[in-house]
Amino acid sequence: MKLLVINPNTSAVMTGAIAQAARAVASPGTEIVAVQPGFGPQSIEGPHEEAWAAAGVAEQARLASEWQPAATVVACFGDPGLEAAREALDGPVIGIAEAAFQAASLLSSGFSVVTTMTRTCIMAERLVQRYGFEHQCRGVHGTDIAVLSLEDCPPQTVAQIEAAAREALARDRSSAIVLGCAGMAPLCRQLTRTLGVPVIDGVAVAVKWGEALAALGLATSKHGDYARPLPKTYTGFAQKLGW
Ligand code: 2AL
């Protein structure tokens, strides 16, 4: 099956790292197609950037609707444009934040999120509320590590994330860690070893979920909210992106 991974930011280096993380867990019969928007911010660390990223995901989902991937993963922790992609595409569309919260809830009685910039914590907290994980998520912790600095992750950055995770586990009395950025995906195995608790990278979980749902013949419901967008005229640079 062809599984589409959309990196909502426009960093080609991060798209490559996400693709590698996806391929590392994909089944032999799964081809990972990794893309990024044709416009927008290189990293997503605030609402303005997230708004552009959501439009970028809508763009990529519209383009992919021409070939309809078996499943799609939206690989940024804010899940930008997730619902727009569900309208555009027939197969399951999985956001890495929602997938990670679900996995963490299956594996622990309470989890903590360790993310990048402190200013993005409120965005993650709102996602926790939107998806209904307030009872399982015991805290969201910023590290003030910039998303793009994860591209070339030096040992001191890994140590900083590990220290933040240890503090979160103690302070929140939680028993699993959700990594709050797609750029942290390459660190998951190492952190799992050193922390000794489940460390959840949403990219890996979302890929496996996408594969599983597609293999079961389960697709996005086209009844109601996620039916195809209505045909209408789009203008400006989005001229070719309508139905
Ligand atoms: C992210 C992410 O996953 N990709 C990105 O550009 N920003 N998440 C975050 N919390 O900053």
Structural key phrases:
four-stranded parallel sheet, Rossmann fold, 243 residues, 2 domains, 8 strands, 42% helix, globular, binds 1-(2,5-dioxo-2,5-dihydro-1H-imidazol-4-yl)urea, 14% strand, alpha/beta
**For the largest beta sheet, what order do the strands appear in spatially?**
2-1-3-4
Span of the ends, CA to CA: 26 Å
Count of DSSP E strands? 8
Radius of gyration of CA atoms, rounded to a whole number: 17 Å
Ions and ligands? 1-(2,5-dioxo-2,5-dihydro-1H-imidazol-4-yl)urea
**Multimer state:** single chain
CATH classification class of the largest domain? Alpha Beta
Low-confidence stretches: none
**Secondary-structure element string:** EHEHEHEHEHEHEHEH
Range of strand content: 5-15%
Helix content: 40-55%
How many domains? The number is 2
Task: Write a structural description.
With 243 residues, the protein is of the alpha/beta class. It folds into 2 domains: 2-95 and 204-241, 3-Layer(aba) Sandwich (Rossmann fold), CATH 3.40.50; 97-202, 3-Layer(aba) Sandwich (Rossmann fold). 42% of the residues lie in helices and 14% in strands. The protein contains 8 helices and 8 strands; from the N terminus they run E-H-E-H-E-H-E-H-E-H-E-H-E-H-E-H. It has helices spanning 12-25, 47-64, 82-88, 96-107, 121-131, 155-172, 188-195, 202-215; strands spanning 2-6, 31-35, 71-74, 93-95, 111-115, 137-141, 176-180, 199-200. The protein has a 4-stranded parallel β-sheet, with helices on both faces. A 4-stranded parallel β-sheet has the order 6-5-7-8, with helices on both faces. Helix 1 packs across helix 8, helix 2 (47-64) packs parallel to helix 3 (82-88) and helix 4 (96-107) crosses helix 8 (202-215). The longest helix is centred in the first third of the chain and has 18 residues, at 47-64. It is globular and about 50 Å long. The two termini are 26 Å apart. The mean pLDDT is 97. The structure holds 1-(2,5-dioxo-2,5-dihydro-1H-imidazol-4-yl)urea (2AL). 1-(2,5-dioxo-2,5-dihydro-1H-imidazol-4-yl)urea binds at residues 9, 43-45, 76-77, 115-116, 120, 147, 180-183. The site of 1-(2,5-dioxo-2,5-dihydro-1H-imidazol-4-yl)urea (2AL) has 14 residues, from loops.
